[in-house]
Each structure stands twice: as structure tokens, then as C-alpha cells.
Amino acid sequence: MAAPKVAIVYYKYKTYADGTHPVMIRITANRKSRYMATGYSIKPIHWDESNNRLVEHVLKQ
């Protein structure tokens, strides 16, 4: 059995009223993914899609 993979993801399938999207942790084990909320949300301009990371260190609860 392989070790589970963990990744920080920008969950753009959920949009809050202020236009932000949540930052979540994706854990993949045995080809099944689970998402855990971090409690942070960011605007789309703060996320770098190509490198899968934050552009600025601006986090908002």
C-alpha cells in the first residue's frame, strides 16, 4: 500500500458571499480523496494556478 498524498488546494467549487473561495487540504489514499477545511478563504487573484500556491501572503478567515 502506498503512502497517502497530501496537497493544499484552492477549492473553487464553493464561493462565499464576499467572492472568496476556501483553501482546503486534500488527502488521497487508496484512490479516494477527502477534503478538510483550513478555515481560510482567498480571492482568485491571490492563487497561482500553475504552481498551485498563494501569490500573496494575504489570508482571510
What does this protein look like?
- This protein has one domain (5-54).
- A 3-stranded antiparallel beta sheet has the order 1-2-3, with no helix packed on it. The chain has a two-stranded antiparallel ribbon with strand order 4-5.
- The protein has strands at 5-10, 21-29, 32-42, 47-48, 53-54.
- Strand 2 (21-29) and strand 3 form a beta hairpin.
- It has no helices and 5 strands.
- With 61 residues, the protein is an all-beta fold.
- It is 0% helix and 49% strand.
- The protein is elongated.
Topology:
Elements: E1 5-10, E2 21-29, E3 32-42, E4 47-48, E5 53-54
Antiparallel strand pairs: 1-2, 2-3, 4-5
Q: How much beta, percentage-wise?
A: over 45%
How many β-strand runs?
5
Radius of gyration: 13 Å
Helix content: under 10%
N/C terminus separation:
36 Å
The order of strands across the largest sheet is 1-2-3
Q: Mean pLDDT, rounded to whole units?
A: 88
Uncertain residue ranges: none
Count of distinct structural domains: 1
- Which word captures the global form? elongated
- Characterize the largest beta sheet: strand count, sense, and whether it forms a barrel: 3 strands, antiparallel
Order of helices and strands: EEEEE
How many separate helices? Answer: 0
Q: Assign the structural class, choosing from mainly alpha, mainly beta, alpha/beta, alpha+beta, or little secondary structure.
A: mainly beta
